[in-house]
Amino acid sequence: MNRTGLAEWLHFFRELGVDSLNLPASVLAPKEPVSLESLHKMILSCTRCPLHKTRRQSVPGEGSQHPKIMFIGEGPGEQEDREGRPFVGKAGQLLDRLIQRMGHSRDSVFIGNIVKCRPPGNRDPNDSEVKACLPYLHQQIGLLSPRVIVCLGKVAANRLLGTNTAISRMRGRVLSFQGIPVVPTYHPSYILHQREKEAVTRSKWDVWSDMQEVLKLLNS
Length: 220
Ligand code: URA
Prior knowledge:
The chain is built from eleven helices and six strands. It is an alpha/beta fold and 220 residues long. It has a single domain (34-219), classed as 3-Layer(aba) Sandwich (Uracil-DNA Glycosylase, subunit E), CATH 3.40.470.10. The protein has a six-stranded mixed β-sheet, sandwiched between helices.
């Protein structure tokens, strides 16, 4: 069906009183095969969910096209929305230090997010926003083919894996997405928001022990 035909059908549905169509994610998925570059172009002009109305720009993600490790966060914050790059704020600085301590660099890994546009006020992305955006992440994972995926925080881990579990129960384990090992760990913002010194030390230590698991997986 061409664009005009589709527009006529949508108009017809609207006249019948249907103002939203609950389409399966497979229908919303961009057509394959695509290069990372063309996928990111699609993301930059995406209007699949209402977040496009409030974003300054979308944030497709960045890094190596052949990364051993892919880090997945929740969604761009204010600074990321301004710069069009993932994890460039305070949480990003902590993530950078972690990546360096692991013997890697921002250029050698890939850093992305569950949703590519900033949810207003940095709220968690809702179900329909995630449903609209997740096909992009699935395509990125397919094209990048990382050896290990690190999910930063509960939103990233639960949305990627389709679960609903506390991050404290997910971390410390190696899970799997389409045969790729997934290591969930705390989001850097979680560490930054801890008030007690001991809690900061404990959560940093937990993240570091999760990253040891990542390094072990890369060496196996
Ligand atoms: N937090 C995220 O989850 N992603 C970013 O890109 C920045 C902060």
